[in-house]
Amino acid sequence: MSFTAEVRDELARCAPECAYCDVSTLAALVRVCGTLSISGRGGYQLQVATETGAVARTMIELTHKILKLKTDLTVRRSVLHRVRNYLIVLPDQPDLEKALILLGIIDRSGGLVAGVPKHVANRACCRRAFVRGSLIAGGFVADPRGDFHLEIAVQGEQFAHDLADLICGMGVQARVNPRRGAYAVYIKSAEDIRRLLAKLGATRAVAEIEEARAVKHVKNQVNRRVNAELANQTRSAGAAQRQLELIEALDDLGLRPGLPEALETFCRLRENHPDLSLRDLGEMAQPSLSKSALYHRVLRLEKMVEEARASHEGD
Q1: Helix, strand, or coil here: 67?
Q2: In 35-50, which positions are buried (b, 16+ CB within 10 angstroms) versus exposed (e)?
Q3: Which CATH architecture is the domain 3-201 placed in?
Q4: Which sign, positive or negative, has the C-alpha torsion 65, 66, 68, 73?
Q5: What is the number of other CB atoms lying within 10 angstroms of the CB of residue 2?
Q6: What φ, ψ does residue 69 adopt, rounded to 5°?
Q7: Which residues of the chain are in CATH 3.10.28.10 domains?
Q8: CB 133 within 8 A of CB 14
Q9: I need a surface site. Which of 11, 121, 277, 313 has the fewest CB within 10 A?
Q10: What CA–CA distance (Å, rounded) separates 71 from 59?
Q11: How far apart are CA 282 and CA 269, in angstroms?
Q12: pTM for the full model?
């Protein structure tokens, strides 16, 4: 089961917080994945098509529980994608129009409602139920072991912005992006995704996200340390190579025989240990020398070579 399917299934099992929350959840399911047909004689037919068992189960349960309406269910298996397709149909029946008004699909004059109907998102718990239903119906949550991403695919610009506003009202940053004739309400921040799922009641999904974040944090720390160590090694290798070239220049200029003992000690150490950093090189000395002490000896040698070269150029 994908992470999205796990999240949808967990959310579908959340209990309502008040007597009206189920209405809000059902309203969201219908708005996100439902299609309303109107006949010439003023009759209605509502179809909800989904590949998600949690959506089909929740749709049928709430329709029977709240609306007391007849539903027809057709289940087909896609040979190409190896998934089940569920088609729930609410045929034209006496109380269907009242149900559509209750769910905020149409208004009392028969016009379609463009945004999120206020009466199904009037309370804080009902707003959570509406967002929960929208996520169950059209949500996608990326596996937290990869990139963090949550989105809800919806139809209608006004509805998309209203849904984003509901999510933002929960302290979560949500944005709207047009996508192939539809709209995606999306969240990219791992903390915002975790916060939203926690508020909606997906505790298992939140635990998986927190575990994935902890693993990523450890991996990032290890990678940073490895990269820093590699960078230090690269710098040390470059510095050691320049010091060997400096010693070679001393030999070419005939300065090596007359070097003070301290400088000659450095030259021997570097020739014997060409790969060590200055700090490690100092530990090889008897007695041991600090990195700073060796660095100052390098500076003295560089000055001697510069002065000798300048003198030769003057001649």
Answers
A1: helix
A2: ebeeeeeeebebbbeb
A3: Roll (3.10)
A4: negative
A5: 11
A6: -105, 155
A7: 3-201
A8: no
A9: 313
A10: 10
A11: 8
A12: 0.70
Cα angle value 306/308/310 (rounded, 5°): 70
Cβ-based neighbours of 219, under 8 Å, separated by 6 or more: none
Per-residue model confidence as pLDDT tens for the chain (315 residues): 788 989 999 999 999 999 999 999 999 999 999 999 987 677 899 999 888 888 899 999 999 999 999 999 998 876 666 778 889 999 999 999 999 999 999 999 889 999 999 999 999 999 999 999 999 999 999 988 888 899 999 999 999 999 999 999 999 999 999 988 899 999 998 899 999 999 999 999 989 888 888 887 788 788 888 877 777 777 777 788 888 888 888 888 888 888 888 888 888 888 888 888 888 888 888 888 888 888 898 888 888 888 888 887 765
Question: What tokens does 294 get?
Answer: 């060796």
51/62 Cα distance (integer angstroms)? 18
Give the per-residue pLDDT at 281. 83
How far is Cα 264 from Cα 278, in angstroms, rounded to an integer?
Answer: 15
Structure tokens at 156: 């209608």
Q: Which two tokens stand for residue 57?
A: 């189960």
**Amino acid, single-letter form, for residue 290:** S
Two structure tokens written together for 301: 């040698």
pLDDT at residue number 244: 86
Full 3-state SS string of the chain: CCHHHHHHHHHHCCCCCCCCHHHHHHHHHHHHHEEEEECCCCCEEEEEEECCHHHHHHHHHHHHHHHCCCCEEEEEEECCCCEEEEEEEECCCCCHHHHHHHCCCECCCCCECCCCCHHHCCCHHHHHHHHHHHHHHHEEECCCCCCCCEEEEECCHHHHHHHHHHHHCCCCCCEEEEECCEEEEEECCHHHHHHHHHHHCCHHHHHHHHHHHHHHHHHHHHHHHHHHHHHHHHHHHHHHHHHHHHHHHHHHCCCHHHCCHHHHHHHHHHHHCCCCCHHHHHHHCCCCCCHHHHHHHHHHHHHHHHHHHHHHHHC
